[in-house]
Design a protein that fits this description.
The chain is an alpha+beta fold and 146 residues long. Helix content is 42%, strand content 12%. It is built from five helices and four strands; from the N terminus they run ααβββαβαα. The protein has helices at 18-25, 33-44, 94-117, 127-132, 134-145, and strands spanning 51-52, 63-65, 70-75, 121-126. It has a four-stranded mixed beta sheet, sandwiched between helices. Helix 3 (94-117) links the parallel strand 3 and strand 4 (121-126). The longest helix is centred in the C-terminal third of the chain and has 24 residues, at 94-117. It is globular and about 50 Å long.
Length: 146
């Protein structure tokens, strides 16, 4: 890390280690590696015409096919508390992280309900699925577009 001045936004508790705070704040919410990988895979098999982070839709889905009313969310296993991966809170600031992940899960359900109420089909792709087989994920999306 450089010795550049670092400013916190005060929403989260002060970490015990300043480096941890810098690393955590650098984590992106858009254009993440899993999102880019999936979009490239979809494009390569001819599934074009998607929109990224469409503000007009509830929850700003990572990928949206408006023509077919399909919204796709790519969830990071840690940030959305993946049950299959056995999410465990960190040892420091445990209460904060448990509350944060629970709020993320609740917000995810609200976004899905809002999209379904306007006629969208919602597909949630977990980060571990992309690490497994990109072909299976692309096939899952392709079947929903038919």
């Amino acid at each position: 890390m450089t010795n550049k001045e670092y400013k916190r936004d005060k929403r989260s508790p002060v970490p015990k280690n300043g480096t941890v705070s810098k690393v955590m704040s650098a984590i992106k919410s858009k254009e993440t590696k899993p999102e880019v990988q999936l979009r490239k895979a979809l494009f390569s098999v001819g599934l074009r015409g998607y929109r990224k982070n469409l503000k007009e839709l509830p929850g700003k889905p990572d990928i949206a096919y408006t023509k077919w009313k399909i919204a796709i969310f790519i969830n990071g296993c840690y940030w959305h508390g993946c049950q299959q991966c056995g999410w465990k809170p960190p040892k420091h600031n445990t209460e904060y992280w448990v509350n944060k992940i629970n709020k993320n899960r609740q917000r995810d359900l609200q976004k899905i309900d809002a999209l379904k109420s306007i006629g969208y089909k919602v597909i949630t792709i977990w980060e571990h699925e992309l690490k497994g087989s990109m072909d299976l994920v692309v096939k899952k999306i392709h079947l929903n577009l038919m």
